[in-house]
Amino acid sequence: MKFFTITSKRQLSLLGVSLIIFAFVFSIAVSGAGSATIGVSASKKKLPIYAVGREENDKIVSISFDAAWGNEDTEILIEILEKYKVKATFFLVGDWVDKFPESVKALYDAGHEIMNHSNTHPHMNKLSREQMRQEIEACNSKIEAITGERPLLFRAPYGEYNDTLIEVTDSLGMYCIQWDVDSHDWKNPPSEQITARVTQRVIPGSIVLFHNAAVNTPASLPATIENLLEKGYTFTKISENIYRDGYTIDHTGRQQKTAPAVTTAQGTEPDDTAPTAAAE
Length: 280
What we know:
The protein has 9 helices and 13 strands. It is α/β, with parallel strands linked by helices and 280 residues long.
């Protein structure tokens, strides 16, 4: 075996320079990695509320209806929901409100909550910040003029959103709402398929999407409600399902309740013993 020794000052000098260069390059690499990590964290996409994180035995579900075009089935939907004592959330487009103010009043008088689905049903993520605000506020004003209540919730047409839209709804004191269970009633499948699809996907805290003018929604609704009632579910309006504060939204769009703060001798800190909502 051969051993190499450094015998000259020149060799020592070269070794020292090499070590300095290596340390410099290594520090840049580490710093760059850290910066990249911070950049990813800082640019985390904002999410609307798709559902609410709840314990398995906290069987709460919300059903919602989007109304943008027809009005053929509004009365029968009111009758079905009344039969089962279920209160739902209806997201209305401003243009629909203009056309059917008597239906807006009938839904509200039946105890359902009336919320915002934009004014003209545009692709919201293609609008400027000010255009988004105008769309939302115009619809809010139309609904308030009939019900006396300004909407708290907003659902974007086509389910399209971006960070700007979430920021706008936040600035208006509103919650942007999606869904975690799509009935697919808008595809006009048989009513049995709609019922099976919904009841197989609902979990505690779910928000279900229906449409007020889909062909087979009225036929599917009784069996859907009965199935979920048999499973022990309680139906609530979305505004009563979601957490208004003290929550985070995980990567699936599900609200998670944060632990409440407790006061200690050193100040306020999170209470690690407090129960939190179970993640999906």
